[in-house]
Design a protein that fits this description.
Two copies of one chain form a homodimer. By secondary structure, chain A is an alpha/beta fold. Helices cover about 45% and strands about 15% of the residues of chain A. In chain A, helix 1 (about 5-15) crosses helix 3 (about 55-60), helix 3 (about 55-60) crosses helix 8 (about 150-170) and helix 12 crosses helix 13 (about 280-290). The N and C termini of chain A lie far apart (about 45 Å). The interface between A and B is medium-sized, with 20 and 20 residues.
Chain lengths: ~325, ~325
């Protein structure tokens, strides 16, 4: 398996410049006191479309051959990759079809349609999204842009960490949310290239610990339909590429429970005034709960902020 | 009545440098499309202590005589000025007593105590805060730092607009929330100095339209115990200084209802991922509701983000 080299992340950064936002790094005395370390939070909730996914999607769309750009692309996603690909395609005039579960949060559904994409809904209890996506793609001649397991996606996601290292590096620790492993893959290759001694830790929801299990087993392990408030990390298994990159570049994958995610979100909303979704708070929650005990200068990826306020009102109380 | 000159705002900016944050200006394609103008939102929710009030408090504390700094200061505030003065005093080692209503939001109460201040609670149905504050101050030899009607406070609050003009000016319109009028006073003197042709509009909650009434009457008018979700703008009347500055520098004061404030907050939370309190969204709500119809480049002050998440959960649904 050929891994994504650091230079591809550098090229991706040039490719997405002026299209994606260079997001801010947030520092907070309150968080530093709680974590007993100097935290730098890379705030991808402020990225276009509300998550880091816009980076990978933009990098992937920019490299599509002309014929594919005319015909259009398709993806399957519970939300953030859907919005990201829709917006990246809209910016480049590429038709996009998004296959989404019919229980996806309303705000993500509306946003995806708002970016001009055609949305095809399916019942996740009855249909596997990969199979349905492949079928529609074949019927209509569309090219699939997968949510994480693709070198252009992984390279694009790595640009978030690259910006952070440029703006405030070096870091002693890097803590990153882990769903399908695209952000973790890109982040880890950048961090090990720029700081070989730095420790990279991925964080999954306790109910969806497919990466931790897979790394322990030395092969890809599937978990069944994980139930967690971290809806962006409900992926059942690592991808082939993202698993190989985790084996090579990630020192450890740990987990946090949903209660810790709510606590971390509450802190970010209440004290830092930033709307972060539960998945986006995975890495910070692990630091605050002591699942990771980093010292020195710590980069914490905060991956997104797409949360349905109506449902958030339920767990905020 | 001697107004605050623009040069005092410039001096305040030097005085608070390195103590207060230089807050970001937020731009959003979604908001621009809704407003049909180019909006620059000055995000004081990211200011230290969660609102612009830290600017005025820091500027005021920096100018206290040595004897006063040793003895301590006192203020009365429903929340944001309380936290701001407490934090400014903590940074300078000045004792602070804060007189707060016993129905102030929990998060503001806890934060104020967290900054090391002594909090004295009172029942707002039974006691006038000014009278109680004056009594305690006299008994304990404390100097009152009022929440808005003081030249050092007004000059400090003006530094938010000064930063915005430096970072992205010139502006054709400036729209600013109006409670006691300190932020509006400082913002308007800066804006008229740097852009004499620019139009400055203040925005109050409909239920607490003391500035609009006062400007129409040509003298200070009191409103009784205004009930609005904009808890930072429940001030019953303009101050002498802030009223005189409004007469001199503000072109118009308009109002919005609580429903519009909730709508504007929802947009800021959901689309921009920024936690803004209802008072903080006054100016944006007026633009989105068409109570102000600005064109060209528009500076919109977003004054704070201190909201109790438990109560927000109620109006977010």
């Amino acid at each position: 398996m050929e891994l994504v080299p650091f230079d591809d992340v550098r090229l991706a950064a040039r490719r997405i410049e002026g299209k994606a936002h260079r997001t801010p790094l947030l520092t907070s005395r309150t968080l530093d006191r709680l974590a007993r370390a100097r935290l730098y939070l890379k705030m991808e909730c402020f990225q276009r479309t509300g998550s880091f996914k816009f980076r990978g999607a933009t990098n992937a769309v920019a490299q599509l051959p002309e014929a594919v750009r005319r015909q259009g692309v398709l993806t399957f996603s519970s939300g953030n990759h859907a919005q990201a690909l829709a917006a990246a395609c809209q910016a480049e005039g590429v038709p996009a079809v998004i296959v989404m579960p019919n229980d996806a949060p309303r705000v993500k559904l509306e946003a995806t349609r708002g970016y001009g994409a055609e949305v095809v809904l399916f019942d996740p209890d009855e249909t596997r999204r990969e199979a349905l996506g492949a079928q529609i793609a074949e019927e209509r001649g569309l090219t699939v842009v997968p949510p994480f397991d693709h070198p252009h996606i992984v390279a694009g996601q790595g640009t978030a960490a690259l910006e952070a290292w440029e703006d405030a590096g070096p870091f002693d620790w890097v803590v990153v949310p882990c769903g399908g492993g695209g952000l973790m893959g890109g982040t880890s290759v950048v961090s090990k290239a720029l700081g070989p001694g730095c420790r990279v830790v991925g964080v999954e929801p306790e109910a969806g610990d497919d990466f931790r299990r897979s790394l322990e087993a030395g092969q890809i392990v599937r978990v069944h339909n994980p139930q967690t408030i971290a809806d962006g990390a409900r992926t059942p298994s690592p991808g082939n590429l993202t698993f190989a990159m985790a084996q090579e570049y990630v020192d450890e994958v740990t987990t946090v429970d949903d209660g810790s995610l709510v606590g971390a979100c509450r802190l970010l909303w209440e004290r830092c005034k930033c709307v972060v979704e539960p998945t986006g708070a995975l890495a910070l929650a692990a630091v605050l709960e002591g699942r990771v005990r980093p010292g020195g200068r710590v980069l914490v990826l905060v991956s997104g902020g797409n949360v349905d306020l109506a449902s958030a009102a339920g767990w905020l109380q």
